[in-house]
Amino acid sequence: MHQSRHGCPASPSVRRRRGFWERWSTRFGVIVVLLGVVGGGLYANVESVPGYAPWQDRTSTVLRQLGFGAALDTYENWLYSRHAPSNTQPDVRGLMATTTAAAAPYRYLPHLAGTADHLGWHPIPRLPAERPMIYTALLQPDQGHRSVIVGVALLRTPTLTAHLMAGTAEPPGAHSPGHIPSAQLPDVVAAFNSGFKSSAHPGGFFLDGTAIRPLEDGKASAVIDDRGRLTVGQWGREVSMTPHVVAVRQNLALVVDGGAPVPGLDRNTDRRWGSARNQLQYTWRSGLGVTSHGDLIYAAGDKLTLTTLGAAMVQAGVVTGMELDIHSGLQFFSSWRGDGTAAPQPHRLLPSMVGPSERYVHPDIRDFFYFTTNGDISAATR
Description:
Low-confidence stretches: 24-39, 378-382
Number of strands: 18
Largest sheet: 8 strands, antiparallel
Oligomer: single chain
Structural class: alpha+beta
Strand content: 15-25%
Radius of gyration: 24 Å
Strand order of the largest sheet: 1-2-3-14-13-15-11-12
Order of helices and strands: HHHEEEEEEEEEEEEEEHEEEE
Number of helices: 4
């Protein structure tokens, strides 16, 4: 007979409650054990994939494989929306790479309205004797939160050859080494992250004649042609499949169109820009766009909403632009430079970017873009 803690027989209602909680405690324990076994196995599989990835990326991969994608989205919305960034002016010293090289004349640098001269465009030559193929700047696009800093890099398209490299795991089925080929390292100028992982259904992926994921009309697309030129547009409108296309990386919908932010970035009512309310998260975001002259702009920063990212890209001169990846560790930009006494080495655009500076020299789980010099350094004056 069941007894109470005082030695008296337990009432039927007490026994029923005890039985209920004993049954559910057992079931819950079994569920926890199963999740631990299955999750542990999945995590071991994810860990066994060669290539760099931050722990957050590996963990989210396992959780989504276990079916917790919706719960993870809800948690991220809560986590990244709890605290708005401050309106305190930050100390920007040391946030941007500068050089002593004189800026080569380049008339197509976009005007950065409202940006102090010490934050504006700075040339980043790969070697002291070369004309710069990259210019970098810092922006403060959020007037209500002055602590928000966005690093931007302009890549001189006529001087560069663009490449899309699949990662060791993303997109699935690409079977890629996931790193910059060693033979091309002496000519590398820059490398940066690509877009959302395939499980987020951001769009298609085409490389070297193979559609690894089907291309979708209406998606924002980074397209590389057989001259090595990269441009950004909406698939089926500015860009489409031709015999000259060698690579296409799609990611959601355009963020900037016609030199202005696309209406609705703050609402995302039809989920063109990912899961509901992710556009309101204050988190790391990155973007890619083209200027009116056809040069490329990469932008990234922490504590950005999708609206702030769009504003930063427009401020940097983007006329057509797309979001790339979001959250800490999933965006990274390296520019290669040296003093002429040794081979150029990669350096972060922002010191707060997570990951080794030589990230794309070694295998990476996610796909990325990289750029090599085409040898036409004189094009930097055009």
